[in-house]
Amino acid sequence: MRKLTSVVVAAAMALVAMEAVVGAPARAAATQEYVALGDSYASGVGAYPYDSASGACLRSPKSYPRMLVSSLGGYTLKDVTCSGATMADVRSKQLSALSSKTALVSITVGGNDAQFSAVATGCLTESEWSCEVATMYSSYYARNQMVGELAGLYTEIKRRAPKAKVVVLGYPRLVAPTGSCGAISPSAAKRTFMNGNADAVAEGTRAAASRAGVTFVDMRPVLAGYEACSPRPFIHGVNLTRLTETFHPTLEGHAAYTFLLSAHRS
């Protein structure tokens, strides 16, 4: 797995370099409809700056959906991702973008339903006991109720886009076991609780994808060693001037997502 991780990281760095130089689709012809669904991990939070037209949804030109289209071509993108989106938001505000013409769907969602952000904030600012309790409740939800809810959402996506390949990209572990995380560095115990919670959300998502018969991409092995607080992070640490980006992928992290989506898109 370490060899695969090295390949993905190298490819991600190459993709970032190519995007910086080219900044335009490698192929001009757009032939297939691609719909991007999901939350801040899908919209590109962490890859600043954001498209001002997207408002509070914080869609970045360097999100994994947009980098896929920019680097590969061959797709027309409907990007309805939005920072802060829950499963209910995807149902009410994003699924209408799907149709029988849709050939590819990507989605990352569930973290907000599991209170990922609130749990992380609590673990950074409150006691170890509070962090343990918060992650415990979030993990229980993720391994139980969330599985059925996500599976139902994925099934609805398949119903609305019956010809599409549906790719579910999961969440990584957030923090390295040691190292500075920036303005606030959680204790070793808190890091264990937080990463255990990330595992629960990832495994719940995997179970839901399996139940619904869609493709799941596990980002934890790929970004292992590149979490926040590591020597070479692909996940943002704590920056008090850019709190929204805390524990979200960097540009390189989003490029790693792009590489894995490309590998599973057909």
From TrEMBL:
The active site is at 40 (nucleophile), 248. One of its GO terms (biological process) is triglyceride catabolic process. Residues 36-256 form the SGNH hydrolase-type esterase domain. The keyword GTP-binding does not apply. Gene3D superfamilies: SGNH hydrolase. Residues 1-19 form the signal peptide. Keywords: Disulfide bond, Hydrolase, Signal. Pfam families: Lipase_GDSL_2 (PF13472). The keyword Plastid does not apply. Disulfide bonds join 57-82, 123-131, 181-229. InterPro entries: SEST-like, SGNH_hydro, SGNH_hydro_sf. One of its GO terms (molecular function) is triacylglycerol lipase activity. It comes from the Bacteria. PANTHER family: LIPASE 2, SGNH HYDROLASE-TYPE ESTERASE DOMAIN-CONTAINING PROTEIN. This is SGNH/GDSL hydrolase family protein.
